[in-house]
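Methionine aminopeptidase, pasting as requested.
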Amino acid sequence: MIEHKSPGDIERMHVTGQFLGQVLAELGDLAEVGVNLLDLEHHARRRIKERGAESCYWDYEPSFGKGPFRNVVCLSVNDAVLHGLPHSYKLRDGDLVTMDMAVTIDGWAADSAYSVVVGTPSPEDLRLIEATEVALEAAIEVALPGNRLGDISAAIGAVAREYGYPVNLEFGGHGIGRTMHEELHIPNDGRAGRGWKLRPGLTLAIEPWFAAGTDKIVYDPDGWTIRSADGSRTAHSEHTVAVTESGPLVLTRRPQAAEGRQEARKSPATGR
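Structure tokens follow.
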């Protein structure tokens, strides 16, 4: 069943999303050379406990994966892109790290992710991250009443082709609300004008992710961490978005000050 949320429900999801955006911003600031991934995990755990929130990842046990997930944030480094299992690893200069979190507050969920480069970035990595961010914004722009789910997928796929990156269709966006994963799968490519008709109250987690050289993936022995099959770098951007009468509302925007700090860490990417 696909639930269309009331304006009050969306506002409650917005509260969750604002908290999540803040925590992700903090993790981005902490991700420096020499910092252990487990330090990021423990910071997220503390913030969730302080807020009285609940992690959507803890004890998550889907059809893939090896046993229940016993962490609150996915941390994926370099060629890892999804479901990176936090482990004892100190970040190195030039590492590309993706942070992905989902939490609930008072029964309402939000899900978000973004990628940053630690230390000295390469133009190629910045361009890859930029592609996921541009694709996410393009997808958000078409999350309008009367449009179709395929319009979102097509917007992501068009940006991937513009940048020259292949697209994997196995993992993509999804419905979200009372739980992290609700009905509707959002592939990261598709045909405009097809699929579920968007109506006010629909809430979606939109999440373009690309690997620089392939659309094939492999799993680590941990059963969770997903990597590009050719070892090429990867990046991932995600927001929780509500379709409203007045247009798309992004529920998980990170604070503007934090966005500015992240931009300051970058050097100009090679053009689109």
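Note for the archive: The chain has a mean pLDDT of 94.
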